[in-house]
Amino acid sequence: MEDSDRNTLTATSINTFVDDASTLFNKAKSVWSIISKNAATVDLHTIHGNVLPANINSSLDLQSWSSSPVSRSSTLTIYNRLGLRVLRFDYDLEFLYGGSLNGRGAYLDGITVVPSRTTVAWCYVFNANVEITSVRNVGTSDNPVAAAHVELKYQLKALSRAEGTTSFDVKGDGRVDILHMK
Predict the structure, then answer these.
(1) What is the DSSP pairing of strand 161-171 with strand 176-181?
(2) What are the pLDDT digits (tens) for 167-182?
(3) How many whole angstroms separate alpha carbon 53 and alpha carbon 146?
(4) Which of 1, 6, 86, 107 has its CB surrounded by the most CB atoms within 10 Å?
(5) pLDDT of residue 151 exceeding 60
(6) Cα torsion for 17, 23, 28, 31, to the nearest 10°?
(7) Which residues face 120 on adjacent strands?
(8) Rounded to an integer, what distance in angstroms lies between the CA atom of residue 47 and that of residue 52?
């Protein structure tokens, strides 16, 4: 396997707007690979998503961010038909929340999934991608609360294939809901 194959990032641009006075936009990447062919993908730039007001240029234009990122750890484990573990994937969903514009709103920045440990059985190939599928305002026009639907999509291949998605709903007030794991 060539190094260039292991370090390829996949990015797809989306233009998802909320149709009200407090338009929100994901100004960062919408889809990125975090595991490719059993190896963590490498990029010198931080790969993340955000939900910010459409009329600003950067998260630096906002104030009152949380002092440290929220981090939620999860583990994905897959067993074969013999009951042997063929995959253990530990990861952290991380993000900053609470950024406000002129004292109003609660926005999101730095939304990412960080692999912390991956163990894959011999002859299996594991791939995982993160996608921000939608952004929306769950607050009011006067006091918007950003929300993002984040999906971790994975694929484990050998003689057979296992695919699945874990979905998270991340909100500008710091809440995280795990919607489903399948």
Answers:
(1) antiparallel
(2) 999 999 999 998 876 6
(3) 9
(4) 107
(5) yes
(6) -30
(7) 87
(8) 16
pLDDT tens figures, 82-111: 999 999 999 999 999 999 999 999 999 999
Cα 107-113-116 angle, rounded to 5 deg = 140
Contacts of residue 160, defined as CB under 8 A and 6 or more positions apart, other chains included, come to none
CA–CA separation, 32 and 101 (whole Å): 28
Domain spans of the chain, in order of start: 3-181
Residue 70 tokens, joined: 């929220």
109 vs 95: CA distance, rounded Å:
6
Q: Return the structure tokens found at 36.
A: 């490719």
- Tell me the two tokens of residue 161: 């294939």
Contact 17, 23 (CB under 8 A): yes
Contact in structure between 48 and 26 (CB atoms under 8 Å): no
